[in-house]
Design a protein that fits this description.
By secondary structure, the protein is α+β, with helices and mostly antiparallel strands. The chain is built from 12 helices and 17 strands. The longest helix is centred in the C-terminal third of the chain and has 24 residues. The structure holds flavin mononucleotide (FMN). Flavin mononucleotide binds next to α11.
Length: 390
Amino acid sequence: MRYLTAGESHGPQLTTIIEGVPAGLYITEEDINFELARRQKGHGRGRRMQIETDRAKITSGVRHARTLGSPIALVVENKDWTHWTKIMGAAPITEEEESEMKRQISRPRPGHADLNGAIKYNHRDMRNVLERSSARETTVRVAAGAVAKKILAELGITVAGHVLQIGGVKAEKTAYTSIEDLKRVTEESPVRCYDEEAGRQMMAAIDEAKANGDSIGGIVEVIVEGMPVGVGSYVHYDRKLDSKLAAAVLSINAFKGVEFGIGFEAAGKNGSDVHDEIVWDEEKGYTRATNRLGGLEGGMSTGMPIVVRGVMKPIPTLYKPLKSVDIETKEPFSASIERSDSCAVPAASVVAEAAVAWEIANAVVEQFGLDQIDRIKENVENMKKLSREF
Ligand SMILES: Cc1cc2nc3c(=O)[nH]c(=O)nc-3n(C[C@H](O)[C@H](O)[C@H](O)COP(=O)(O)O)c2cc1C
């Protein structure tokens, strides 16, 4: 499967075209809108999220709620577009209109794509960069992830994203009773944290950062349960599932690091405290006594839960401005703000969940794919049976 996204932050709409989705999958606009609403929530989001109520429209590839096997096109309108038709329209404008707009951006914001993008594409108006580099694009990544999650649900694979840390506050209670419980509790938390007390402290940390005109980042975790053994491969570098997952998480705006299982902690430990011993029992077949490697060995799923973590830097647009240089005057200035979130870690956990779901669904469809969801399901069930009996 593959997908492309298109659309500017204040353009008329965001679009994704998803190709290679098996036929026969039950999906509705409501399934996608449910995920889009999850991305919009979270303590610390700015005014833009109050303006937009993201709703996806399926414009091809689905008939009577079943996928056809043909490309699926999804569009999400930007409500704010009505205020931007002149500034962001595709039609030509006169020089006079251009000077009237006075909305040329010549002041790059530190931590954003503004300056590098402007130099790279020779844009004197940095709006041409920020409109596309904006995390508004993650809306349609979540839409594509919603389709992936529908595929995975059919195959008994569950994906759940949640927040482990915001600023200096870490979740202490992280051991969840079941993935369903994890999903239920984090869905009710304004910061998507399983540890309610830590969640309260996270909200206070966000409020404090906001009051100081600052921003904070954090760590999100995505868990995938119900994986068959052997998804991905050790035979070639670009088939390793962990490398694909890492790239997917790092491709999310503001994500700066990825780890699996105990991750970077492994550096300071002995091998005997890192590797997971293999055990066998009649009912489950082969499992691991622990899951410190996060469900991945040799670039393949072990059948244990996949545990991926990503670190998000604090949002770069600050009400407390950072120094930068105007590209027209070469004079220093303090970077002013566009509407901005003070913390988007809760929303980013939904985006990370979608990105991981996409990679897992893609790898599973590639490995077990037969163009039809029911036959993929049969193949996955056979694989699960085979590995139990192996
Ligand atoms: C869900 C989400 C929302 C974001 N919201 C904002 C925001 O309101 N303001 C901002 O400056 N950056 C925001 N970002 C981060 C920027 O998009 C990102 O830092 C920027 O595009 C530069 O890319 P880089 O940090 O990956 O280098 C957000 C990121 C995510 C994932």
